[in-house]
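[09:14] KT: can someone run the structure on this one? pasting the chain below
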Amino acid sequence: MIYFAQSAANQADLVAKEALKAGATEVRQTSSGVQFSGSIEAGYRFCLTSRIASRLLMALCFDENVNSTDELYEKTLEYAWENWVDPEKTFAITQTIQMCPWINNGHFAALRVKDAIVDRIREKFDQQRPNIDTENPDLTFHVHIRASRVIIYVDFSGEGLYKRGYRSDNLDVSLKEHLAAALLYRTEWYKTVEEGEPGVLYDPFCGTGTIPVEAALIAAEIAPGLIRKTPYAFEKFPSFEPETYNRLLDELGDAAEAARNRKISIFASDISRAAVETAKAAALKANIYDLVSFEVKDFTKLEEAPAERGYIVTDPPYGMRVSENTTKLYTLIGQTMQRAFRGWKVTILCGDSELLSNIDMKPDRTNSLYNGGILCQAAHYYVFTEEEKQAFIERARQRREERLATPLTPGAEMAYNRIRKNLDAIRPIMEAEGVTCYRIYDADMPEYSAAIDLYEGKWINLQEYAAPSTIEVETAERRLNELVLATERATGIDLENIYVKQRSQQKGKEQYRKLASSNKFYLVNENGLKYLVNFTDYLDTGVFLDHRPIRKFIQENAKGKRFLNLFCYTATASLNAVKGGALHTTSVDASATYLDWAHENFRVNGFSTDFDNFFYKSDVMDFLWDTYDRYDLIFCDPPTFSNSKMRDTFDVQRDHARLIEACMMHLEKDGLLIFSNNYRRFKLDERISEKYSVEDISKETIGRDFERDMKIHQCYLIRHKVKVEIPTKKIIRIKGE
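[09:31] RB: done, structure tokens below
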């Protein structure tokens, strides 16, 4: 017999192993499952034992050369359907159509197969015909067509193999049984099961109990078929062999009985009492109630693990289950693991990699699994013990000492001397101004082309400018490494706190994209405010250091003003306006990510995000044309180039006049527009200078740390021109004069 076991994406390798254990031969993996050959007994055994497959089909007829629906009908008619169907039986047809030019409607293909089967049965049974039943048929045939290749299967397993029978049909469960089993198969815990001594397993977010129940079934070698409540489809086949089937049931029952002698320690908890009670009911139905210890417990408050060493396998809330506190929850999960589960191995299933970044641990490996339509990551961690941590710290210290003791190359020595010279010159100035984040190097040496920014004396953001194509890759990499080592040596900041990125010129419709998903933020200080910065996930950190004087200017001129911040990014300018006493602020950006970041900036400074300070996710031009509010102070700092999905491309040189005109429509007659941009060859449109009062303050808005590059940005103050009427003097002529 030829079988096809359907499975979810990325699980075919697990299903293939199950097929081999069931006695299959010629096993071949595909994107949607596993094809294999085997006896009827192998088919029975697979259905009884598979924990991962969703369904098993058995091939009935096959043809490589079908090129029309008429041919499909004729060739289907040739098969001996009377060996399967009679007028007393009902059947249904399902179909899968791929890359088939001769079929426009998949249902029509299924209809032609159905007609052929019915006509064949009518011919063999004196015009009596079987009935179609799409709800509860005796037999289901599946038509698979790919190009001219047609295979017709019979559904061998019937109801989905993942339906073990311990779940209530009306229970809304987010984690299906076969996905939980696949997750467990991917863990280090499963290796202990294969070795015959299952390790301690704990699911702290057990919900309705799918993971602990499946774990207990695996550890106790209870085959899914032993607890299944619904008969398999093959039990209705004319060729069903009850003796073979019952013998297999006895064999599997004996294996489960023998495994009961194993020491099995499985713990499960959840903060929801209702969920735990549902999980207990499932364990009782699955006949493993005595193998799992259930408790109502808040994992984030645990101070002690249930055992000295063990394995956490869990599925915390994510996706549709996410609430406002979910990010905080994942942070607390990481903290609890570090506090109470040192020495444990942990597997967390999550459909949002952003949430996983809050665990604050680096996974050893990950697996991709689909939970319904959600692509999930199974992240596997090891929680180091305090001794192991100290050993790592000591090794890192030794490596650092060895690194610092190694003489720099001549090139690195030159870079070191320049950075030291810059630091000696700029640091006293910045300290006198109360500035803690500033630039210490900006391509001062052509061979080492990068910008180096120092944050709070703790972190370095090093942005390498892309080397020209004439420079060999090996040379560019060597120079970058030399610059990094020179920076560490000159600043005293450890290598792990030096974040390196490459800035290159964007072409066509390219835009700076997200670089990573660490979700690690740090607080920096400026002008009496705090800003959240991120050194890993984006090219820019969340604050443009060259705009520091502009932000200070906004703070000094915002008192009593209505402030509008366009292309607000993380709303650092809006923070300064609030600090300076603005009546209210409005911040506009097309990026939801940046607006979320802006909200967090307001929260860490204790500023309201509900009253007086407003945030709009919108294309700036749309906002300006669709709203009517007027403002006393507007800050507009557009990108050099943008290809927002919501409109055509934006080019600051080409489009700035139109943008400024739109801004001026919202500016009060005595108001002030601060227009800034970073395009190095920018030229202000003459029509703007003619129509409005324009003052170029670029030089005044460049801090001492950026004086090496006076073209870092350009900044203008733009006001409405004031019309002054000069009264005319009336001349009285005296007669005779």
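[09:33] KT: thanks! The CA atoms of residues 143 and 178 lie 25 Å apart.
[09:34] RB: yep, looked fine to me
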